[in-house]
């Protein structure tokens, strides 16, 4: 019996999957139809980042490099040699940093990737980080974080997730992406995605990258669920092109 090639999935930053909030064993349990479709062609390797579903909590806040290292350790420990990595939302940003840092030829499919950030939000959050250490009423600090970050479920998270979120929400990964070979990357966006708008990234890329981006009409941030057939087809095509 022939062994199926392995693809690795890197999940996003979903509030419903915070440790202690959900009873799911794995983040991808929330998208079983995608796993079913992928499993027809591949061995699907999945994991939870710390702070999500059933996972341990580190004793300090992480940055994007910590998540990239986690992916590399997962592959090494399980002796996986994936034919592709699929990163969704924040997972797309991690995938880009992982590939840039651990130079390899593994192709990436980035779905609604959180690669590029709004300059205005970046500046405001940089100022906020300087202000927050000042002795403030705890509830006021929490209110500021929730309102500014636009994530009403922020308050449900563990301390690790809260502090890590402040670290990663302003990360700009467009320079990392430009350090990769365009032929090894494909990017899917939804035209109506308000969380990771395609325009934020497209305007920062040279013309040779534009053919690597597909914008799905009427798609929102969750195209990995609502357009799962397109996602699987794009992944198969990406692998075939290598």
Describe this entry's structure for a reader.
With 242 residues, the chain is of the alpha/beta class. It has one domain (6-119, 164-240): Alpha/Beta hydrolase fold, catalytic domain (Rossmann fold), CATH 3.40.50. The chain contains eleven helices and six strands. It has helices spanning 32-39, 64-77, 90-101, 119-131, 138-149, 159-168, 174-178, 198-202, 207-210, 223-226, 228-240; strands at residues 6-10, 43-45, 84-88, 108-111, 185-190, 213-216. Strands 2-1-3-4-5-6 form a six-stranded parallel beta sheet, sandwiched between helices. Helix 2 (64-77) crosses helix 3 (90-101). It is globular, with a radius of gyration of 18 Å.
Structure at a glance:
With 242 residues, this protein is an alpha/beta fold.
Which descriptors apply to this entry?
single chain; 242 residues; alpha/beta; Rossmann fold; six-stranded parallel beta sheet; 41% helix; globular
CATH top level?
A: Alpha Beta
Radius of gyration, in angstroms, nearest whole number: 18 Å
Structural class: alpha/beta
Helical residues, percent: 40-55%
Write down the overall geometry: globular
């Amino acid at each position: 019996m022939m062994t199926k090639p392995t693809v690795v999935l890197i999940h996003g930053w979903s509030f419903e999957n915070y440790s202690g909030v959900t009873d799911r064993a794995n983040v991808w349990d929330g998208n079983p139809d995608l796993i079913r479709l992928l499993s027809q062609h591949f061995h699907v390797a999945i994991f939870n980042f710390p702070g999500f579903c059933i996972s341990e909590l580190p004793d300090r806040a992480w940055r994007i490099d910590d998540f990239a290292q986690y992916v590399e350790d997962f592959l090494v420990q399980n002796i996986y040699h994936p034919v592709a990595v699929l990163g969704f939302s924040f997972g797309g940003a991690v995938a880009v940093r992982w590939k840039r840092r651990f130079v390899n030829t593994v192709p990436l499919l980035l779905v609604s990737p959180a690669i590029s950030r709004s300059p205005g939000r970046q500046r405001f959050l940089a100022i906020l980080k300087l202000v927050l250490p000042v002795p403030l009423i705890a509830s006021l600090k929490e209110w500021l974080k929730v309102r500014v970050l636009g994530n009403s479920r922020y308050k449900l998270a563990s301390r690790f997730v809260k502090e890590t979120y402040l670290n990663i929400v302003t990360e700009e990964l467009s320079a990392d992406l430009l350090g990769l070979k365009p032929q090894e990357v494909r990017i899917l966006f939804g035209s109506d995605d308000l969380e990771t708008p395609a325009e934020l990234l497209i305007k920062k890329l040279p013309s040779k990258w534009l053919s690597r981006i597909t914008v799905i009409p009427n798609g929102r941030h969750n195209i990995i669920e609502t357009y799962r057939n397109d996602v699987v087809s794009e992944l198969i095509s990406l692998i075939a092109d290598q």
